[in-house]
Amino acid sequence: MNRRVRNNIAYIGNLFPLSVLNAGKNFPPFLPFYHVASDESIDYINSYNIRSSKEFESELDYLLTHYDAVDLTEIIENPSKQKMHLSFDDGLKECSNIIAPILMRKGVPATFFVSPDFVDNQSIFHRFKRAILEANACIKPGGKRFAIQEVDELDQLAKQNSIDFSAYKPYMSLAEIEELHKSGFTIGAHSMNHPEMWTLSEELQFQQIKQSMQWVNEKFNPQLKAFSFPFTDDQVSLSLFSRLQTENITDVTFGTAGLKFDVAPNHFQRIPVELAQKWAIKKVVHFEYFYFKIRNLFSANTVKRQ
Description:
The chain is α/β, with parallel strands linked by helices and about 300 residues long. The protein is built from eleven helices and twelve strands. The longest helix has 19 residues.
């Protein structure tokens, strides 16, 4: 969907009260996800809109007026449109020092999805590398995006321009993640190193999930084995989901397709909040429900898989 159409849907959706937009029973639970909240500029993030700590808390207050914030077990066992579960991808350090204190103060459960290769800043997400190079005028804005298979090219550009990626420390330490776990938050896996999964064979997709879940299980022994797909779960096959269930790799998995159902069992679609259009949370919510109603006219509210 192009941006103009998306903006038009959002504009019309915001003309209706939420009680009209979500009237009825046939809705999935509301599953918004963020990456970060920060009161400082961040050179390595340029692909989504960063909330300040005040903006994040304000958005959280808005969500809590409309939804019951519940833990993952409740979402799986008794999903409904009144229930919300927050999650946060990538394991960024602000999850520990900004986001978690706000959630704890308000008594909001959440899941933090981490990629083991990035914990303790052992390495850095390839899209962050590209953003750093762009911030240092080594790459033109809007140019080549670079997939994970092209990370060597990014490293070479950094070397040529005397950029030291190791100077950047975007991620939580293992000790900080352990504190989140001890505080009652769920820790899930987000692949080993955040690849574009659609570029990988099904076997490599499976290994990314299996290895990252093994790391989470060994470190935290979570009550629920939860995995969120990096970028998107588009083109992920039913056979992969079946294998994850058969081999007891995951209990629940998540995509990023918005307010939709999914044919894969125990697989839920989440709602990206940090849109490049810089929409406030109310606009995101109204867009998702109005677009859901539009898709419903064409029986298009369930993600189909081969």
